[in-house]
Amino acid sequence: MPHSPARSTASGARRAGMRPLQRARPGRPPKNGDVALRERILDVAEEQFAKRGYEGVSTRAVARDAAATPAMIHYYFNSKRKLFDAVFARRADVVNKERMAALDAYEASAGNNITVEGAIAAFLRPVLNKLDTGGAGWRNYLALVAQVGNLHEWGGAVMTQSFDPIIQRLISIIRKALPDTQDEELYWAYHFLSGALMLTLAETDRIDRLSKGKCRSTDIAAIEPRLVQFASAGFRQMCNQQKGTQAKKRKP
Amino acid sequence: MPHSPARSTASGARRAGMRPLQRARPGRPPKNGDVALRERILDVAEEQFAKRGYEGVSTRAVARDAAATPAMIHYYFNSKRKLFDAVFARRADVVNKERMAALDAYEASAGNNITVEGAIAAFLRPVLNKLDTGGAGWRNYLALVAQVGNLHEWGGAVMTQSFDPIIQRLISIIRKALPDTQDEELYWAYHFLSGALMLTLAETDRIDRLSKGKCRSTDIAAIEPRLVQFASAGFRQMCNQQKGTQAKKRKP
DNA sequence: CCGATATTTAATCGGTCGTATAATTAATTA
DNA sequence: TAATTAATTATACGACCGATTAAATATCGG
């Protein structure tokens, strides 16, 4: 070999955010304090999926922004779809555990005085807290959840797998606060709450424009108490409405 | 020319749904009773955008399913983005006029007895009616609206342009039913209603799975009165909540 | 019936896509 | 230290992408 041209020892995150003036040589890079490449890929994919949708993202673009090569995505995740699933699953586990703990704690502390407000507040707080203070990663993930939730094709399946248990838990608690309410009513009420929550998670600037700045889609402190009140009133109303219908049916 | 091989006179929709055993020759086809190709392209694009998202659709696939060539999409719409805009605008005009008429009619008929229920019912009925009885085209369009509405990137702008006027009209009517309510409260309440509506329009089978068949996402007759009641109770609650806060602030 | 115009097919351009494999280098283990 | 394993680059394959143009054919207005 005549001579080795000057080579950057930089590889992976050492180049992240900088111009890759020199490509790294092939082979396993020397150990360093970087964030593991696998995590960097997940972060970048999360951001891009949230902003451009699954189909709008190319594995090459993810690799580029993660300062990696397309082959690394194949190495860690095998396929684009499995990369997406890994992105989706990573934070779902975290937030689901927090939510389950919050609902358990609420039920234990409320004793026989369970309220719809209390249950919904416990259900929402972990998610809205992540949205508010969890940083860009959590915001991207939650925007992705909102997007997938309204997707006609594989929206249903992905959401069901991730979130059904916590939702059934919520409904089982609300059922105690609103006894004698039919499941059908409770599920429809949850459906409406879910839609309201997902639009909130999406953080489009729709409400900002509509209200000419009076409301800001990122103002979680304003949203949280209002969503709790709005949805709780809705749940109660559907319980009352049902009773009215039943009474009428009983004595027409 | 030695000989003309047997040629199908079929072109465009004459082949729709059949195997294109023979390609049509170039040139303007003879007149026939077909649906105009432009409309066929819009229908197919509407369906594909709804089911696979903007980025998930190729103009080639649209052309194929419309029994056309990619060049025809360029001929009628110039670009994929303008095709999307045409899909979005086509039915928005129709439903917006119906909604505006419904709100006008309600306000005129209610006189001084305007209720939140009445206003929301008038606002929702045209859309839910299209979803229920408008056929596959309307279902596809409304699923697309739901999808775009929760999109982080260009969701805000597209929705604002299409739907702001009708929403401002709705809020101006509700304001009469709930006087002394701050705009901020009304806009947040609408935000929640909007999310609930969009999830309904998406018609994912999420609620079907969650409720183990007790609720069906396509059962508009079940959804419409419940959404009206749920959202109306929410609007009223936010009005009351505000009054409570003001009273507290006045006399702490 | 002729010229202008509308609508269509065929063919193609340059680019990007997801995925796969071989070569290369460092870390780890025996 | 020798063998094995882990992590990376380089390169490439075949398919598909959005967009454009030229040629062909029918309709329509005179």
Write the topology of this structure:
2 copies of one chain form a homodimer.
Chain A: H1 37-52, H2 59-65, H3 70-77, H4 80-110, H5 116-133, H6 135-149, H7 155-177, H8 183-202, H9 206-210, H10 220-250
The structure holds a DNA duplex (30 and 30 nucleotides).
Protein model, in words:
2 copies of one chain form a homodimer. By secondary structure, chain A is mainly alpha-helical. Chain A is built from 10 helices and no strands. In chain A, helix 2 crosses helix 3, helix 5 crosses helix 7 (155-177) and helix 6 packs across helix 7 (155-177). The longest helix of chain A is centred in the middle third of the chain and has 31 residues, at 80-110. The model of chain A is unreliable at 1-21 and 248-252 (pLDDT under 50). At the A-B interface, helix 1, helix 6, helix 7, helix 8 and helix 9 of A face helix 1, helix 6, helix 7, helix 8 and helix 9 of B. Chain A binds a DNA duplex (30 and 30 nucleotides) through helix 3.
